[in-house]
Automatic annotation (TrEMBL):
<dbReference type="InterPro" id="IPR020846">
    <property type="entry name" value="MFS_dom"/>
</dbReference>
<feature type="transmembrane region" description="Helical">
    <location>
        <begin position="49"/>
        <end position="66"/>
    </location>
</feature>
<feature type="transmembrane region" description="Helical">
    <location>
        <begin position="12"/>
        <end position="29"/>
    </location>
</feature>
<feature type="transmembrane region" description="Helical">
    <location>
        <begin position="273"/>
        <end position="296"/>
    </location>
</feature>
<dbReference type="GO" id="GO:0022857">
    <property type="term" value="F:transmembrane transporter activity"/>
</dbReference>
<keyword id="KW-0813">Transport</keyword>
<keyword id="KW-0812">Transmembrane</keyword>
<feature type="transmembrane region" description="Helical">
    <location>
        <begin position="394"/>
        <end position="415"/>
    </location>
</feature>
<protein>
    <submittedName>
        <fullName>Sugar phosphate permease</fullName>
    </submittedName>
</protein>
<feature type="transmembrane region" description="Helical">
    <location>
        <begin position="241"/>
        <end position="261"/>
    </location>
</feature>
<dbReference type="GO" id="GO:0016020">
    <property type="term" value="C:membrane"/>
</dbReference>
<feature type="transmembrane region" description="Helical">
    <location>
        <begin position="176"/>
        <end position="196"/>
    </location>
</feature>
<dbReference type="InterPro" id="IPR011701">
    <property type="entry name" value="MFS"/>
</dbReference>
<feature type="transmembrane region" description="Helical">
    <location>
        <begin position="140"/>
        <end position="164"/>
    </location>
</feature>
<keyword id="KW-1133">Transmembrane helix</keyword>
<dbReference type="InterPro" id="IPR036259">
    <property type="entry name" value="MFS_trans_sf"/>
</dbReference>
<feature type="transmembrane region" description="Helical">
    <location>
        <begin position="317"/>
        <end position="345"/>
    </location>
</feature>
Length: 423
């Protein structure tokens, strides 16, 4: 007879993950589609690399400002309604991109999109920690986060196709891109309240015995968890938050910068729009499968530190190597390695964060980690645009990412050593 634990985890995965994965897929398409849109929008509206980097960076500034309050509001109003609210508002903000007419309106629209989307990712991580025991969390988070690389696989082809609608009904191709890629978020947001539940005791698809097992398993973790009162001002003063934020900053900056800039890196080799789209899909497709494998491996071995540090080291090394190659094939090979390693660490990292903070600090703590990391992402993205514009080299612009991921690797090893030391 099948073990009750496996039955419960399978039921939770099948009931909760599909809509959350689809939601994050749509969120990342709406966030990163600017990378393709700017191939035509930039020259038409006079948005150069520095202006593009600055405007794109404002997305993360807004993300930081609204992220922690959003997670605390989710605790008060419930995940079901709050996640729906986030989806609907970011869909509306995405539609506003259609009206962009220059660098200033571009920056304003990106800020509004960041403010609207803020809270979705840490809210879902918090939500998953309230349903899945920690022994399953790396693979569950990895499954959820396949949305990120998968969004670039789907979004590359979709964006190239929508840009080809240039001139239809008097709209530019990039306007069609923002219009049609924003609508799914609104539709999903309207469906979420009917699909998700706030707590395990609210669902009928778990039997009495299954609900009892899950409730006890989660309660046992809360009973042994570290943490304080979960207040934002106390959590942010915790040095663990800043250590974890630095670790994740390199990963976050790498995935977001490449989502936005990789199409331009590839197209700089003189390729067509469709050739760019096809090659842009490859690194993200490889990362999609590998991150699930790595998350499963991390749960089996129980090594959160090693499963986070090793991919950061590989990411850093591959980014440094882009300085010594100028061929398309070699560059693509390095980008594949970078993104496979970078996405692999995300599942183990968020499991490590949940375990380090404990259940009582999770709401504000997870949001704070993501917010601080994205503040760094904003700075790196802006710096990338300035370095690329002044040097004319994408490889030089990638150097801050190489240094940041190397620092994250060192901080992960320090955190592992400090966790082993007695209090």
């Amino acid at each position: 007879m099948e073990d009750i634990e496996h039955i419960v985890i399978r039921k939770l995965s099948l009931r909760l993950l599909p809509v959350l994965i689809l939601g994050y897929l749509v969120a990342f398409i709406d966030r990163s589609n600017i990378g393709f849109a700017t191939l035509t929008m930039g020259p038409q509206l006079g948005i150069g690399p520095a202006a593009f980097g600055f405007g794109s960076g404002l997305f993360f500034v807004a993300y930081v400002l609204f992220e922690v309050p959003s997670n605390l509001a989710q605790e008060r109003f419930g995940a079901r309604l709050w996640i729906a609210r986030i989806m609907i508002t970011w869909g509306l903000a995405g539609l506003a991109m259609v009206a962009v007419c220059g660098p200033i309106s571009f920056s304003l629209a990106r800020f509004l999109l960041g403010a609207a989307e803020a809270g979705f990712f840490p809210g879902v991580i918090l939500y998953l920690s309230q349903w899945f025991p920690s022994t399953h969390r790396s693979r569950i988070v990895a499954l959820f986060m396949i949305s990120i690389p998968l969004s670039n696989v789907v979004g590359s082809a979709l964006s190239a196709m929508l840009l080809a609608l240039d001139g239809v009904w008097g709209l530019k191709g990039w306007q069609w891109l923002f219009l049609l890629e924003s609508l799914p978020a609104i539709v999903l947001g309207l469906l979420v309240p009917f699909v998700l539940a706030d707590r395990p005791d609210q669902v009928r698809w778990l039997t009495e015995a299954e609900r009892e097992w899950l409730t006890k398993a989660l309660a046992a973790e809360r009973g042994t968890a570290q943490g304080g009162h979960g207040r934002a001002w106390k959590v942010i003063a915790d040095r663990r938050i800043w250590a974890l934020a630095l670790i994740y900053c390199g990963s976050s900056a790498t995935s977001n910068v490449l989502s936005l800039w990789q199409p331009q890196i590839i197209k700089s080799f003189g390729l067509t729009l469709w050739e760019t789209a096809l090659l842009n899909m490859l690194p993200f497709a490889a990362a999609t499968g590998f991150m699930v494998f790595w998350g499963y491996r991390a749960d089996i071995r129980g090594s959160r530190i090693g499963a986070t540090a090793a991919p950061l080291l590989v990411t850093s090394g591959a980014l440094f190597l882009t300085l010594v190659t100028h061929a398309l094939v070699a560059t693509m090979a390095l980008l594949v390695v970078v993104l496979m390693a970078n996405y692999a660490l995300k599942g183990p990292f968020w499991a490590l964060s949940s375990e380090t903070l404990g259940a009582r600090d999770a709401a504000a703590g997870l949001a704070a980690i993501n917010a601080i990391a994205h503040l760094g992402t904003s700075g790196v993205n802006t710096l990338f645009g300035v370095l690329q514009e002044r040097s004319g080299s994408f490889a030089i612009a990638l150097l801050p990412l190489a240094l940041l991921t190397l620092a994250g690797c060192g901080m992960t090893l320090w955190l592992g050593k400090s966790r082993r030391q007695p209090a």
